[in-house]
Design goal:
Blueprint: E1 2-6, E2 12-18, H1 21-24, H2 30-43, H3 103-119, E3 123-126, H4 136-145, E4 153-157, H5 162-168, E5 174-178, H6 184-189, E6 192-196, H7 197-207
Parallel strand pairs: 1-3, 3-6, 4-5, 4-6
Antiparallel strand pairs: 1-2
Helix pairs in contact: 2-3, 4-5
Length: 208
């Protein structure tokens, strides 16, 4: 599979890159993608939720009314979950939500996600570029030239670039990462996947 290389003005540079079919043209595994995305979202959960149960409420243990003869339900003390300010029944407790997915499955999931994007023609290859200064408008102009300013985009750099990262940080629908940060969720969450020319060899080296 060959894709033409564009410049920051959205024009064809005349160059083409050949994408490795073992990474960008495999038969996608939906189950591997599901497992990897589920793990990513689960691992983002802090798990710090907590509510107090009956035994943890600070209050009197005095029996507030006699057991029988009131015509209402029996009640022990003000910590009863049925009363306002009482403990919560089976409330949430701190827990670890992290899950484990094998490396081979995660690799298959990322290749499947990239293959889906390639099949849907949602991959853009951009020539290597630099921004002379941190300026959000400069990055927006690049997105406009590629005609994806209104879409959710993910730009993958071969190596860290501070100016590009800071210029895109304020944009809600755009994210800039390096190849080491690329995962299945981010690939599928973006409508347009922009691969800078020097990032392709890194991605193919990691996944092939």
């Amino acid at each position: 599979m060959e894709i033409k290389v564009l410049n920051t003005k959205g024009k064809d540079t005349g160059k083409k890159v050949k994408l490795n079919p073992l990474v960008f043209a495999i038969d996608p595994s939906d189950h591997a993608v599901y497992l990897d995305v589920k793990q990513h979202l689960a691992n983002k959960r802090q798990g710090t939720h907590k509510s107090k149960e009956r035994s943890e409420i600070v209050g009197s243990t005095r029996k507030i009314k006699k057991q029988k003869g009131t015509g209402t339900a029996r009640a022990g003390n003000i910590k009863n979950p049925l009363f306002r300010g009482g403990g919560r029944v089976f409330g949430p407790k701190p827990r670890d939500y992290s899950q484990k997915v094998n490396k081979k499955v995660k690799r298959l999931a990322r290749k499947s996600a990239l293959s889906m994007k390639a099949k849907q023609k949602e991959i853009i290859v951009l020539e290597n570029f630099e921004l002379p200064e941190v300026k959000t408008s400069s990055y927006i102009n690049i997105l406009k030239a590629l005609k994806i300013e209104s879409k959710k985009s993910l730009l993958v750099l071969g190596e860290p670039n501070k100016n590009v990262y800071l210029s895109s940080r304020n944009l809600k629908n755009s994210e800039v990462i390096t190849t080491s940060e690329l995962n299945t969720y981010k690939i599928l969450n973006a409508v347009s996947l922009i691969l800078v020319e020097n990032s392709i060899s890194d991605i193919e080296g990691i996944l092939s």
